[in-house]
């Protein structure tokens, strides 16, 4: 089975204030369903209040990520599923709960992971 990343950038979540409680409830419900189905690996949101750090091979540390890269933010879920078609179904369920489109990517197979 492959592991799939289902994610969205922070700017994609445009939800009226009065709907946030419902979005939180619905998104947590989908995650609980993924856990019950045994496909949930990990999920969460990037804490945008904590800036990234760039750590070199020498151990040198610099505040901030790659200066040329787009900022990484938003939320993500990693699921282990038997097919891309099933990943699309789960991504659609998460999109509906979060009220925003989700990006779907597959992790490359690594027998050591």
TrEMBL record:
<protein>
    <submittedName>
        <fullName>Transcription initiation protein</fullName>
    </submittedName>
</protein>
<dbReference type="InterPro" id="IPR011008">
    <property type="entry name" value="Dimeric_a/b-barrel"/>
</dbReference>
